[in-house]
């Protein structure tokens, strides 16, 4: 049945569902997505002048971005509050239970009690340890063994539940999520990574993993949780549902929200998103991130998960200003942080590679249980590793007052007058030396166990363990400096500013600086790190020490290896991520990298008017390429445009179903006008609508560093290579990544995806 040309269905007029979408593990075409959004915006603006209803639609379209940010902030803040409260309660459950109501954690249980004393404020008759409940006593070896056993059993139960839920329901919920989110923001598609199952399981298992006492934090995974919230809420708005580039702007803002609720640091969150995770960050996204982080922090503050009506995780009040000469120990802490960061990245990547290639990777549940058992058994005897890491950091940051019951504050107070607010440097008591021994052991333990823990099949963040390592090292150095200043105040370095009876050195400040240095060494953050640290502690006047330590640690770590832990994990997993910070120094040309190479078969192309549906279908079947250049003819090889494989398949299938008479012999036209067909031939298929008429091209003599720059800055998927206007070959993002890997003497086949 031959249809007249006029009644031919032109695919330009009626968009085919599915055209313009992407397959899993593919990269989006930023240029195409941005131009699609510009066309949509132009259409709305031009229509808004025609009627009031169109104007209302235009206003609601402009407002939808802010509304979405509000919803993301509210949802992430609420989830973070719930995670904080649950994790606190379940961590205390390992040691005992509250008789007033099992849902109270230790602190809340003893709040209402009238029998607590100031010295033993965490002891009250309402809170029973497991030994007290089971064998009726809190003293003696049996009680200790009972508590020890219960601690290990609860830890094993929590971690077993966490790893089982992750394996059964959401394999993507493991790890920190930041390497994958970086990759997704650069334009890669991982379906299900930000889905509702991942959100649900990650939220539940994060509480379990943190409560099990493993050496991990909840801060990195909270970024993943916030991005899941953003992705799910994007589906409420057509503008974001249908445009992958717009959705990535929202996810950039969500990353800021994640850090905002993790630390109570809204501005630090925005800077973290800008400095560490985002690939494309226009000004509009900056304002929206700021707003979303504000809403999230406000929501978290109204939930008040820490019960101290502060948003800040580790609030500090230091009374002493720091002295210029103290920059020397601060810079030493920076060097330590950089060395630890570089060591940690190398050791962790080596361990993860071992996990991928040996039997370890086949038994993730067993691995988690063994690591949990070792952690719990070694952690229980030492009071500094038994408590949750956040409480440990809080105690290390603390400035000792007269009434502090902590071992770290057991100084000899014989010469102290109680009237003054400031306490002079005092000689350390016996307990301080015991605490220093315990902290030294805790430091070695944390450094080793974190290497093995990060990357297991449970949600695991890295911020808190890194802060803990640095805080312990800093506190030890701080106490050492304090005792030096007390016993040797006539030394050259102390003379003039540290007289006897003065409060010269604050060990808590050293802990804070050390924490910043170690986190900086692992993640290579600088600006956002300093802002997060002073928002986290409220220590505004200590910005210079923090800056000095963060910068030193970055320099030292960069001298040993250029990658942060997240970039190292991206490379380990083979994600197609073009790092913006990497320098490209080799002198190669586009023709050296393009395909086909000299030994390869010629490039697979479509012609603009000479192929039938059958020809195109057999070309699709015989090749695995994700797109095809369209040329005038095989002889001339002059370029017309570029067509994506997915769009071709969808359009041909759609035409066969909805357009009468389309058979394998029907000719395909990519031209603007279809020439008249002989009466006996089947109707033609016009596919100009799915062709990219302005594909990116460079000549064969373009330097590769310029090509890499174009790919980075425009987020291209592929670039066509021409010579005097004739098509020679193609370079894809994967070719560039393989080329960069080859230059760096790495295995080019480690890049797994398109």
Automatic annotation (TrEMBL):
Belongs to the chloride channel (TC 2.A.49) family. The keyword Repeat applies. It is found in: Endosome membrane; Membrane. One of its GO terms (cellular component) is synaptic vesicle. SMART domains: CBS. The keyword Cell membrane does not apply. Keywords: Antiport, ATP-binding, CBS domain, Chloride, Endosome, Ion transport, Membrane, Nucleotide-binding, Repeat, Transmembrane, Transmembrane helix, Transport. Residues 594-658, 691-748 form the CBS domain. Its main location: membrane. It is a multi-pass membrane protein. This is Chloride channel protein. It comes from Esox lucius (Northern pike). Gene3D superfamilies: 3.10.580.20, 3.90.1280.20, Clc chloride channel. GO terms for molecular function: antiporter activity; ATP binding; voltage-gated chloride channel activity. The chain crosses the membrane at residues 63-83, 148-170, 190-210, 222-238, 250-274, 327-347, 359-380, 435-455, 462-481, 509-534.
